[in-house]
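Fold it.
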Amino acid sequence: MRLRVHRRRFRTSLGEFRRRRVLVPYGENGAALTVETHAARWLLAFTDEAALARYARARGEGDRVWRYRTVWGAAVLDAGVPAVAEAGLPCGVLVDAGDGERGMVLPPVVGIVPEAVAVDRPGNDGGPESGTGTGTGVRGVQDMDSGAET
């Protein structure tokens, strides 16, 4: 019973993420920022500027500008994840990374990311390749859609 409730809540949260606009920080090269851990790459997405600022402070980088694009959560999952996965590692999404229980992990599995890049897709041998994360050297938080800096 509890597992069923948990799954229903997760599906609801996933649907809400897909339907909302999220902030996706990017580096000087224009690529979305990712982190790499446990043989997977993770796109970073934040529900608002405050969540992005908390992440920056948790990294000890709260005094630099963090540039971001505002995109639909569905676009992050349906287009961003496959684009990052092309580099050879499975890719999921970390929503509000650094926010503890308020954050959400969207792993690279069927039903969350497109089946073609899901680690549990039919016929997948499960052998991830190695790669590296993307970094940035910019300061603060800047919305590239509006040009506003916080």
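The chain has three helices and seven strands.
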